[in-house]
């Protein structure tokens, strides 16, 4: 049996996966497993895709673009630069690569294309980090995406950028370039020139990245500092009214919209920045001051246009306040975990502040309760783990745990690099220290979470911290159950045997200059059906709602001989955004040769364009 993977494609990237009830032989494309899979989840052999909006059951058949992973393309000599310089991962030309993004979509994007570009770029970046590419990881990832057509909104434009929403966050400047929000690769002021068809230079966007740009800390207005002020030798000099400065002043005169992106320190890592898109502003004033260096500096006062969502900088500031200040008024409970988590998990209802009802009682547990379960693996626990890693953090190749994962650690800087059939973390029988890079899920929740009342989906979960794609959010904890033990009306059940929307998250080998048949399979592979009920016992994950367009996905993780379910960020998630994952659906009905109806037991209110209508 061959595993096929569709390249992520524009509007038709999701597909429902089949769950085979019969044992299947493992394939060469899977990493070696210690057990014979009894149940394999795999994509359907045909790689038809379904269109959003129409729903999986009624969509017309579409020919998947790209070729199935694992098949050789005879026209492409894939072994490229590898033999010359293994560190050089630059892809020079598209060759036969089909980015799945049409020329029109590259010209003008939409939300889906924007998300797709960001997802693929980050997958490449994570892979380069994992490979420990010594230099230019970000630049190489960026150049490869651009060279292979993975970008959108390629022309400079005034005003809104199709597909980019107020509040979207970016962890790297180049991400903004790839989606057309800010095309200037270095400068903070981006502007149209004669090359872009502009009669005079007009500012399109500014990025505040220096502390003094934002000194007013005002949500509605901002003082932006002009560029320049140092000569070639770094000595101070007067700023001049040219280029970006001239463009901003022209925009003041003309009155065109200028996008503002606010650069802020990442609360989870003070060495880096997060860029928050804050919407459209108007330049209202130009003036100059004599700066600290005694030289002339331009200042541009920018005012935010009314009637824009407050999901941008306003949300960021709110989250910052929540993180750093005393408990906010209106919390119903200060800590839902009652001290079991390192960080408090408050409960809040800001939909109806008079409503102080709390969720039905449950016991808060920080890791899975499998006291009544059999082991997931029939292996002597003594044989597991790395016995040769005493006091070493499993960096080196002799680590047994690392060898089980074909030599690569699944995480880089606590970020998941790729989805995998199953991830093995170091466990009790390993001799490595607790801060080993191969222990992440077992270390528990590290984000500031809040359980809050949603408008129409009961309680929900959100984070005060910005979350980078691939970040571990939390484990789905609860009581491991057997099929017979599961109650019929359990609304807090995780069931690995449901049908899940298929999606691609891992890097594409072509974009990192690797052979296509080396791609990492991302469908999970479990020896047993995993059933976890968070009804009586659980953690914050029990409050995470379902969505047909989720921002979180689950990944099976094994350590200490039990399988756990880890929840990871699918994309960058701004603070205060509801976290959701796909609950899957429990029944499938064949209505034709290749058409199925997938239905769950509950009505879905996720409100996304491609809502399936039901779940679980
Ligand atoms: Zn080890
Ligand atoms: Zn280990
Ligand atoms: Zn270890």
Automatic annotation (TrEMBL):
Localisation: Chromosome, Centromere; Nucleus
Main location: nucleus
Residue ranges, annotated region (Disordered): 51-102
SUPFAM superfamilies in the cross-refs: PUA domain-like (SSF88697), SET domain (SSF82199)
Post-SET domain mapped to chain residues: 600-616
Biased composition (Basic and acidic residues): 81-102
Pre-SET domain residues: 388-444
Official protein name in the record: Histone-lysine N-methyltransferase, H3 lysine-9 specific SUVH7-like
Gene: LOC104698959
